[in-house]
Write a structure and sequence with these properties.
Helix content: 10-25%
Radius of gyration: 16 Å
Number of strands: 8
CATH topology: Transcriptional Co-activator pc4, Chain A
Shape: globular
CATH superfamily: Sporulation-specific cell division protein SsgB
Order of helices and strands: EEEEHEEEEHH
Number of domains: 1
CATH class: Mainly Beta
Length: 146
Amino acid sequence: MQKDIKLVPGATQAITEAMRMEFVDTKGTATPLNASFEFDPSDPYAVSILFKGEPAPVRWTFARDLLIEGFYEPTGDGDVHVWPCLSAEGSAVVILELNSPSGEVLVQVSSRALSMFIRQMVGTVPQGSEDDLLDYDDELTALLSA
């Protein structure tokens, strides 16, 4: 379904930011992951992480507010939890706990790198202006005609 959006200054392009993330096992050992964070103004309430692993890439999409709030304090409910922490080396990181029927995974990302992504995302679509990008009448029409 195509979403019609009203453009907010700077809200014309999706943001994709490759980041060094690490899988954290039950012993606290961190293993590097190839991943990127993605934000598309056409879905202004969501953010995605694309894990570029084998045998196929995996995408997790969740509320962008979880990422923003979890940068500062523990937050989340259900399948996604996010909180600030220190890595085993003492670096500031943000932990993402992702739960699915097939298991649970903890990943960490540098707070500095994530901060830059969040700033860019909020600069593109400020918090509280997400509704300005959605045309609810068109969305409802598309849902009812499906």
